[in-house]
């Protein structure tokens, strides 16, 4: 209980620091949303102070000094009210995030979980059968695929499977003629559009999980308790899973917590290449448009998700390895 309370206190302190940084960082960027809007209007000459004030009022630019803005921002965070988007005016930030989040969670979230489970299992098998083809084939292929960046793999798949063979759609999350909803037609169309981004994420991330689990497992297999379990005549599967893999999975579990927390942020490069309307695509447009409310909401959501994932991993560490509770 004391262990969990310590982790909870650290979580709250880190959350406050993240919220404060989330308020400061966008304001350190050069320019402002008002300047970007005025740049579009200044083709016919400079705008007046009254026009500038009207644009600021329309965009909902916060007024007052920095301290007043910070207090107001903390109140908005508590109420989960992030205002109106500057880039997609007059859409609210909550509405935009609500539209993009399901696509990112389904695509990046499911792919991350599948890659972690497959990579961990393959890594366990490769370490247990080290020196055989079952070890060489996945490690070499995983290392080869991990060397390619996300966008390069995405462009290759897009060109060959999309434009050359016409097997899959090349952009968007669903067709222009498809009406969103929980219908078989929409679900089938959405799955077809998600195939290429999903393959990209799986191919580029699977190798890391395989190599990480294999290396940790090989180190664990040399420990005395594994040798003792084998000397007692336990089955190989029991020794591999219940003794070696349980301890070797801890480093991979830390990486999985970070990756799972980062799922909310989406995959900016993959979503940008395929025009997939997820959180990563939305974040890219927010940064380009200097959309403070949207950026702050997305950064805060990503930060909180990573902190929550790390907190859960810390608690799980205490369950899997009691030594961490000391």
From TrEMBL:
Its main location: membrane. GO terms for cellular component: plasma membrane. It comes from the Bacteria. It is a multi-pass membrane protein. It is found in: Cell membrane; Membrane. CDD domains: TM_PBP2 (cd06261). Keywords: Membrane, Transmembrane, Transmembrane helix, Transport. Residues 101-313 form the ABC transmembrane type-1 domain. GO terms for biological process: transmembrane transport. The chain crosses the membrane at residues 103-128, 149-170, 190-211, 253-274, 294-320. Belongs to the binding-protein-dependent transport system permease family. This is Peptide ABC transporter permease. It comes from Frigoribacterium faeni.
């Amino acid at each position: 209980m004391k262990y969990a309370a310590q982790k909870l206190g650290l979580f709250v302190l880190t959350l406050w620091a993240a919220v404060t940084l989330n308020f400061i960082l966008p304001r350190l960027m050069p320019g402002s949303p008002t300047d970007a809007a005025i740049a579009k209007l200044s083709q016919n000459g400079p705008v007046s102070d009254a026009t500038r004030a009207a644009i600021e009022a329309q965009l909902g630019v916060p007024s007052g000094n920095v301290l007043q803005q910070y207090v107001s921002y903390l109140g908005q965070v508590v109420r989960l009210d992030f205002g109106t988007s500057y880039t997609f005016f007059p859409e609210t930030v909550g509405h935009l995030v609500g539209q993009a989040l399901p696509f990112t969670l389904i695509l990046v979230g499911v792919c991350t979980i599948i890659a972690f489970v497959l990579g961990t299992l393959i890594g366990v098998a490769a370490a247990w059968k080290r020196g055989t083809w079952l070890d060489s084939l996945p490690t070499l292929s995983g290392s080869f695929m991990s060397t390619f960046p996300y966008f390069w793999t995405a462009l290759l798949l897009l060109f060959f499977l999309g434009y050359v063979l016409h097997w899959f759609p090349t952009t968007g999350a669903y067709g222009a003629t498809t009406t969103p909803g929980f219908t078989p037609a929409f679900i089938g169309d959405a799955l077809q559009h998600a195939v290429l981004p999903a393959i990209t994420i799986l191919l580029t991330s699977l190798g890391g999980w395989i190599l990480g689990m294999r290396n940790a497992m090989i180190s664990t297999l040399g420990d005395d308790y594994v040798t003792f379990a084998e000397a007692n005549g336990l089955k190989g599967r029991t020794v591999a899973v219940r003794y070696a893999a349980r301890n070797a999975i801890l480093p991979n579990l830390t990486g999985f917590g970070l990756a799972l927390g980062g799922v909310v942020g989406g995959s900016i490069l993959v979503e940008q290449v395929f025009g997939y309307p997820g959180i990563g695509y939305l974040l890219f447009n927010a940064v380009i448009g200097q959309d403070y409310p949207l950026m702050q909401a997305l950064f805060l959501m990503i930060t909180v998700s990573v902190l929550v994932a790390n907190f859960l991993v810390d608690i799980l560490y205490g369950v899997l390895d009691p030594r961490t509770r000391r």
